[in-house]
Design a protein that fits this description.
- By secondary structure, this protein is of the alpha/beta class.
- It has two domains: 65 residues, no CATH class; 213 residues, Leucine Aminopeptidase, subunit E, domain 1 (3-Layer(aba) Sandwich).
- Helices cover 43% and strands 18% of the residues.
- It is built from eight helices and ten strands.
- Strands 1, 2, 3, 6, 7, 8, 9 and 10 form an eight-stranded mixed beta sheet that branches. A two-stranded antiparallel ribbon has the order 4-5.
Length: 284
Amino acid sequence: MILQTLKPWYSKAAIARLARRFFEVFGFCWLLLEPLALWRPEDLRWGFKGYCILAAISVLAAIVWAWPRQSITRRLPASDTTITIRVSDLLQQQGNIVIGVTDVFDTELGDVIAPSSVQGQFQTKVFPERALLDHAIDEALQGASSRFDEHKPKGKKDRYPIGTVAVVEARGNRYFLVAYTRMRNDMRVDSDICKISSALSECWETIRARGQHESVHMPIIGSAFARIGLSRALLLQFIVLSFIDAEQKESLTSQLSIHIHEKDAEHIDFVDLEGWLSSITRAA
């Protein structure tokens, strides 16, 4: 339990920020006390004990001030749109929710779609009856171009271009199912940064057209089963940059929230991320 509590400090950036905060607090207190010594020097002769007490108070204040958070929010000055990154459950949110899927929009849980994936959890919680989801996807994809793949051994065989988005509604939410990976015929998925870039661009356009400017919630797409090979932190930054680029062209929402699953939080250095997000939003 203690080790779990100390995990946020397991980075050089966190320790460096703690040191900066300590010197800022200690220096500020010293700056206040030094002039008082001119008038009441007899009351401020604390000696080594007083120095240690001041240092201890500064350490405690620095820890509180510098404690790594698991929720970061920054505002884009140009549009007043907020970007939030936090550890939370994506499927507990309300509004427009982005779910990454394959180019064939497979829905068969098990060997085809991993139940532990975001899509698998989405189907389990929101569409426990797979036939209802398949029907909603078929309706959403009416008129979309596709090609039939007769060599695919299991699941659906109609392949859609990367970036195709199926919008389905349930429980008062709009779910934007965006195809960002290709389901191979050996039933493994693959993707790359170019596919994710195309998928995000199409997803933002669809949200702009169909999302009614409501809040957008999404996971770090491409972080596990897509086998892209990039860290979650890099993928998260790529998503933020893609969103800022789309938002600057024409506003699509007042708030973007990127949700990190609790088990993935240890892969994100929130201290570094907070500094990066602050700088990138100021520059936007």
